[in-house]
Design a protein that fits this description.
single chain, alpha/beta, 7-stranded mixed sheet, 12 helices
Length: about 425
Amino acid sequence: MTRETCDDPTSDSPLRNGVVDMNTASRGSVLISGAAIAGPALAFWLHRYGFTVTVVEKSTGVRDGGYPIDVRGTAVEVARRMGISAQLQRAHIDTRRVTFLHADGSRAAIVHPQAVAGGVDGHDLEVPRGALTQALYTAVRDKVEFVFDDSIDSLTEDEHGVDVTFRSGAQRSFDFVVGADGMHSRTRALAFGPEQEYLRYLGYCFSICTMPNTFGLSREALIWNTPGRAAALYATGDSGDVHALLTFTHAISPERAPRDPEIQGELIATVFGEDGWEVPTIVDAMRRAPDRFFDTVSQIHMPRWSSGRVALVGDAAYAPSFLTGQGSSLALVGAYTLAHSLAAHDDHHTAFSAYEQAGRGFVELNQAQIATGEAALFPATSQALEARNRRLRSLATSPPPAGRAAHTALTLPDPRPAHPTAASPRSA
């Protein structure tokens, strides 16, 4: 277990029921599980509102690298209010074009990246995932406690707070616990039940990795399609590597594949074994890549985002899937609205209800951006693929898009809510 913090809040903390009691802050103490995007963003705003915050992360540090991600619409304003806009603008990926290819490798269409993503040039941002995670971590690392190489093992809630046992064996107590630990959230499983109750499989699997840029690509993407299968190469700059993506339809979610690298490799090789273009090269690189990531294309749908003193944010609560490109944006906006609600309401039941009321419509609108039929990015049938290509060719001659209304469908509340009562830990 690795702890990073300016001040160790456990140094003189009293004990409650034999565990360290963190209820020493005027606004209460919060444990956040996950240090990717939603977790550090939530920590930033909770600290701003006077909470004592601990972030626990199962990795040994903040993860760098990763596939490019988007920050769009309302999320751009969240980044501005956090003071990280300049960093993200410097990291912005200036992709020039996206070329779609037929199964034989011939060109189907060339379009502007925003025509595919629905973003707004000069406003929305696309950055390497590591650039966003590092910007968020840097903004808050000297203000809250980070505990790396550890995770939540069990939660026990009573009227006073939540007792937490960590994988390391450490025991501590907090006023609230927030799961920001992704689509396969351990916090959600502990507080809400099995993942299968909330995961909605969308019929695709995908795998990503980096591989040598032997294709001469620069600031562009190539997307190869045949019905039910796609391969993509994405050069985010002039580096020696490209990001590779393989995605394919699969009628039933392969339960073991997301956890078994050998099964993943065999499945990829079987599905793409007869394909041409550069697909064999990508498959070979994917099977050997040390940074390969494999998962199903799924969403998380929950009837509620909180239970007692435990809440969820980001993908843990409402993963929209990479087909929408809105995962990072929903995480940033959700973190902002959750922190604001906790600061604006003295009763945590009311606060969590306000958080959900503020964000559910926005989330559902963005989750609905998974297009089907001829609007699908990776069509499953020949007819849908032909219709998609016709649509793409029309986009090539259209004016730049105005952006999607879903991306800006939530108006952020004022960042300085008045505390409703005298400062004190949250009421039961």
